[in-house]
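Can't attach files on this board, so I'm pasting raw text. These are the components:
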Amino acid sequence: MTTFSERTIKSESIYKGKIIDVSIATIEREDGERAKRELVKHPGAVAIIAVTDENKLVLVEQYRKALEKPIIEIPAGKIEVGEEPIKTAYRELKEETGYSTTRLTEIASFYTSPGFADEIVYLYEASSLEEGEQQLDDGEYVHVVTKSLAECEELIKEQRIHDAKTMYAIQYLKLKEN
Amino acid sequence: MTTFSERTIKSESIYKGKIIDVSIATIEREDGERAKRELVKHPGAVAIIAVTDENKLVLVEQYRKALEKPIIEIPAGKIEVGEEPIKTAYRELKEETGYSTTRLTEIASFYTSPGFADEIVYLYEASSLEEGEQQLDDGEYVHVVTKSLAECEELIKEQRIHDAKTMYAIQYLKLKEN
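---
Top answer:
Structure tokens for the assembled complex are below.
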């Protein structure tokens, strides 16, 4: 599959931000053809499947400016520079939801938008939960809710749950139930 | 949940590209606090779950510059301006894989990266397939493969299948099998 590689001829930095970097790469394929690629660099994220003793999934509702609306998602957070993803996961679960766990297991990872971005999400499952207080960062407004799988499916129909990682997590729990 | 909205105070356009637009919004929450949001606009995409008569999932392998490697995904494509998503889906399935279908059904939609992007993927399932010839755009290099669910799970372990929409689609098919 020699036509598969895309060698970078030139890379132009457009923007270096707090969360994303944007660049335009001029690439050359092995047949000599050139093209442009719009690329977003992202540090990656973690997300956590946490189910309470009452068999409810821990979720957070927050405003997503990119969508101009609030949606309900599993707890998640951006990986800090140099931080091991699993450490981010322990930290974000505790900070965003107040719940903590003694053991997280990685169950999957996936690129969210391979057409233009390198964002990867590492998905963990918490083995047991202890309730506690949220510890939100300054300016974080996150509302914690817990929902059964049937309630989650209703929220998907209403498009209040409407993102890939959360919908993947709900399918994962349904498959586990079977 | 009055703290949920984020009013735009200022929006600075950073880049307007062929696929993505990038801007920085200054937002104000209802408590008066201000913050910046890095935002990527994307026209949205479709993806298609197409299973052959031999019960194999139709997949495409292509180089993803954002990841600097090829990965194997379900067929997908960006929605053109003004195009109905389902039309994009009929077109992309045929062009990318050669397979065509008389009926697509929307089974889900999801935002891929709600933290910074508005990209939405509409996921369709093809009800029956007819084999034909690929009709790739100039400069598209897409290698079609068909795989059983067991083979797909191996490819996930090898991280050759490694994106959210494809892994969601595989879970969907597993749930359907049960």
